[in-house]
Amino acid sequence: MEDLIHISAVRHTFRTASGPLPVLDGLELSVPEGGFVAVVGPSGCGKSTLTRLVAGLLIPDEGDVSVHGAKIVGPRSNVGMAFQNPVLLEWRTILQNVLLPLEIVPTKLTKAEAEARARKLLALVGLDGFEDKRPSELSGGMKQRASLCRALIHQPEVLILDEPFGALDAFTREDLWQIMHRVKAEEPFTGILITHDLRESIFLADQVVVLSGRPAKTQFVLDVPDVGVRTLDHLYSPEAAEMLNILRHQIEVAQGRAPAQVTS
Q1: Is residue 167 a contact partner of residue 133, using CB atoms and an 8 Å limit?
Q2: Considering only CA atoms, which of 82, 72, 35, 69 is closest in space to residue 190?
Q3: Do residues 135 and 24 share a domain?
Q4: Exposed, middle or buried by CB within 10 Å (0-12, 13-18, 19+), for 91?
Q5: Which of 132, 156, 180 is the last residue of a domain?
Q6: Is residue 174 a part of any domain in this protein?
Q7: What is the pTM for the complete model shown?
Q8: One domain, residues 54 and 164
Q9: Which of 3, 27, 41, 212 could cross-link 219 (Cys pair, CB 3.0–4.6 Å)?
């Protein structure tokens, strides 16, 4: 399958008051068209910097970031983003919040078509009937569902999820994992998920990329087997337990708490 996103030999350093702060060092990462890659690693290793590079909000000091073989040189309108904080505008209804990107990104949809699409997305994530509510009237999980709809409203080619479920309780988080599978089936996209939750990574992604400690390199790549429709029961299988053990070890390696090779 052809790569949609390709990151090659990327190096980036931030200039701070206390001096240069190297964040990425020769990062390599590819995401095939229609693929879903989860990126995990120690806190502060550069995961969010990676999302800004793919969105074109940041240009690397060295190396290339490309989509469909074209080098990214600035912000891209075909990228949708959802974050840990939904940042919904209280003076707008949920429907109006979802429609907000279409006021910024050019669209061929008429006003009626755009509203119909927003209502369809809200129904897909279980928010039908809440279109006219204000953000303060919704729970945290419901706000995150609305944020996901907003990220998808302009039919982005790439969806970036930067720890969107990190602040939610375990039950709500697992519910949203299942919703994500339904959304991807109905609204195909190429996705990058930033997460600290290893269970989340193997439940949602086709591939898990482990970044090293800062400055980050691609330390390890785990392919998640295709088991068809995933249910939460898969997380309790021997196969899932083995993947989680591998990823936990890789995180310990990235944190400098374990050797790179497992010894018997």
Answers
A1: no
A2: 35
A3: no
A4: exposed
A5: 156
A6: no
A7: 0.90
A8: yes
A9: 212
pLDDT digits (tens, 9 = 90+) for 100-121: 999 888 788 889 999 999 999 9
Q: What whole-number distance in Å separates Cα of residue 194 and Cα of residue 37?
A: 9
Judge if 48 and 162 occupy the same domain.
yes
pLDDT tens, residue by residue, 7-66: 999 999 998 888 889 999 989 999 999 999 999 988 888 888 999 999 989 999 999 999
Which residues, 6+ apart, have CB-to-CB distance to 188 below 8 Å? 34
Q: Report whether 186 contacts 155 (CB < 8 A).
A: no
> Based on the domain organization, do 24 and 144 belong to the same domain?
no
Mapped onto helix, strand or coil, the DSSP state of residue 112 is helix
In 3-state terms, what secondary structure has residue 223?
strand
- The answer to whether the CB of 157 falls within 8 A of the CB of 189 is yes
User: Which DSSP letter does residue 172 get?
Assistant: H
DSSP class of 196:
S
